[in-house]
Amino acid sequence: MRCVSLIEVAQLRKVFRRADKKPGLAGSVRHLVERRFVDKVAVDDIDLRVEAGEAVAYVGPNGAGKSTTVKMLTGVLVPTSGTVHVEGRVPHKDRIANARRVGVVFGQRTQLWWDLPVRDSLELLRDMHGLSDADYRRNLERLDATLGLAELLPVTARKLSLGQRMRADLAAALVHTPPIVFLDEPTIGLDIAVKDRVRAFVRELVAEGTTVMLTTHDLGDIEDICRRLVIIDQGRIVYDGDIGTVVETYARERTMHFSVAEAPASLAGIAARLPDAAVAEGPSDAQLDVTFDPAVVSSARVLAAVQAEADVVDLRIDEPAIEDVVRRVYAGELGAGGMQ
Amino acid sequence: MSAAALLEAAPSGRLPFAGRTRARRSMARTAFRSLVAHQVSFLFGLLATAFAVLSMLYLWRAVLANGPLHGFDWPHMRAYLLVTFVAGSLVSSYVDYRMAGRILQGDVAMDLVRPVGYQDARFAEALGFGVYELGTGLLVAAVAALAFGGVPGPAPGELGAFVVSALLVMPLRFGIVYMSGLVVFWTQNYIGVQAGRIALVTLCSGALVPIAFFPGWAQDVLTYLPFAGMASTPALVYVGHLAGAEAWRAVAVQAFWVVGLWLLGRALWGAASRQLTVHGG
């Protein structure tokens, strides 16, 4: 069967069976004789098409089914029902052929042999992928230019910092120059500097024509790299469309959290000074939150308004998180227009 | 080279045979290196196996002090014990320990994004670990042999059968260890499975007590089960208790189980991979 799109997913479903144990020792013992299970639907009949060269952000809260989808696209997991095709192949049936065409990073796991220098792990991958020495060297040079790989090669994997390990793992996933790359939370736990480096690297991949599917929590990753956004929640795709629309509509709001010396008698005074922002009580009396759109009200104006009414001791700004966007989309605020 | 050309260059399908051989050799070498990286662990392992083999030798010297039993005199028992010891040190626990750990932690996902068959890769790694295990096993056995006044050489005329039988030990042991490692897909815990597997193999392979000491019915059964081939068969050929056609018949049973366990392992993997649950990352 020849498929039209590079990645085609139809009515894909994955159900995990989980032991249903009552709490405590009694529950564990009881489970030995009376085995009960509950079904957890991780991926619930999703449809997805990705064209060659696309960069897709695949986002959703924890446990939404992102990783499970990626694992079915890479042949790690066998779907419960539905179909998956990557370049016309069924990944779990043709896992090895698929593995030669895709590169995968699971941010929380590593491809590297823990007790060996990074170089040894990469050479093993060279041999697994059947790369010639010339190709291998050329690919390493490319990876070195953006990832600073050379300094990592002689280091034992267990001694790498998290950021270094991620750079080495990216190299391990891409040493065979795969045309399709799945990155599952590649910036998780990294500091800003390394995040920037990883994002720059992924942008470069996309610019070269690699098809990238990026799973993340971090809105920064997405805005930097992808134009298309797919939001999944509780196993269902709730939004699939242009990233600009969502970000402009839902990710513009910032919230400023103020701590004030003395609780103001009423918030009405502040609210009157800021008609375009939402003023709310904070978690305690001496705290208040102002939510606003920086394009309409500047941060400086918000600050000035609050200072005019109260004695500001401290403040903190919350950038919009993708979770907020997801939550709002899921709550139906985006409307059917964005739905597939 | 342009990006498009690079992407175009990425191949598909399986590697040709020569490439697969290179990949396997590389996996074996990597597995070997990962063990050599821990020198202290190596020394402790050596010490532990040395004590195990010494206690077996002292025990059997006492048992045979009053003369031969079931056709074993003391020098041949020494040879038998040392051959079973070396055989028993192969595919001991690195393979399944690593496998089970990675399955339980979900790192098996990383094994599956690589372009190599799962069983194939584990076997290649087992060969790498095996070189290390064989090295330490032979070292301890040689020292023990010297300490106990040497051992007789292999039975003349059975050298061919002994070599073939010895070569079959590793894939045979791999078969059982691989399957026991896969059992964690269902049990979610490996300590009990491994202990059970070690006890079963140690007893039924004649590594603890030669099978000739077992009751008649048990001997008949064990002759056709895969376990004897994991230690007893090469040792009996070495000391000459299995000779001529009988030796080759035992080798044939080994070969049958090598293939049989490989196929069973493959079927078990097919079932296990549907069972696979990888939570998080």
TrEMBL record, chain B:
Q: Which UniProt keywords apply?
A: Membrane, Transmembrane, Transmembrane helix
Q: Does the keyword Transmembrane apply?
A: yes
- What is the name of the protein in this document? ABC transporter permease
Please list every transmembrane segment annotated in the UniProt record, as residue ranges.
Answer: 35-59, 79-97, 129-149, 161-186, 198-218, 224-243, 250-269
Q: Which organism is it from?
A: Cellulomonas alba
